[in-house]
Amino acid sequence: MPVLLYHAVTDSPGRHVAPFSVSPAEFARQLDLVLDAGYRCVTAGELVRLRAERAAPGRLAVITFDDGYADFATAALPALRARSLVSTLYVTTGWLAGGGAREPGPSDPMLAWSQLPELEAAGVELGAHSHSHPQLDTLGRAALDEELRRPKQLLEDALGHEVPGMAYPHGYSGPRVRRATRAAGYGSGAAVRNALHRPDDDPFAVSRLMLMRGTTTEQFGAWLAGVDGRSGSPLAGWATVGWRAYRRGRALVRRRPGSAYR
Length: 262
Description:
two-stranded parallel ribbon, 8 helices, 16% strand, signal, NODB_dom, Glyco_hydro/deAcase_b/a-brl, hydrolase activity, acting on carbon-nitrogen (but not peptide) bonds, Polysacch_Deacetylase
């Protein structure tokens, strides 16, 4: 099952998000390809529910967004609504406008807290993406709990209901982070992995396919056809472990969490 990950949908992205953005025209083409391939889109929350019920009717896909860029409301959502497609948006609560002092982050305009109820009313499922967007697996226990629990509480206070889903900033998690995510009260955790989601995937390590500025139509079509780049080589697993150890060590030496914005 393809679980697609988008960030910004814009023709004029800022420096930080530019490699991870797609143009509105390309986004529209990709949505049409999803429909042409016969997929029915569900939210991340519905995916978890269907997994728990061991039910997966038809060809399903999930469209997700990370961070909470303002262009979600002005560019992405109109294209989704024109095609009657649902989506899940994971927001970095410390970056949202109208919430007081802003955490260090990208220069691009972000969504405002006041827009969140409107997005929900338009069929968007909302989830958390931490408060300040650190590499969660570089944090100590107290800081990790803060980055998981604070955005959940803030969003639930703003929306008036439970927020069940979490997406890990930068896609980094690891067993310790996944356990903490479950303990914080979330029902699922979205990673990246650039692989198709499979029925036996850990619900706290949901695989997603990240759309980049350079993602080709051929690559996107291959994902929709069920082909991904997932490697079964044990070397790939050890490389992930080694990279995580390096990032955690660097964070300890610098005495600050790994992040692209600090």
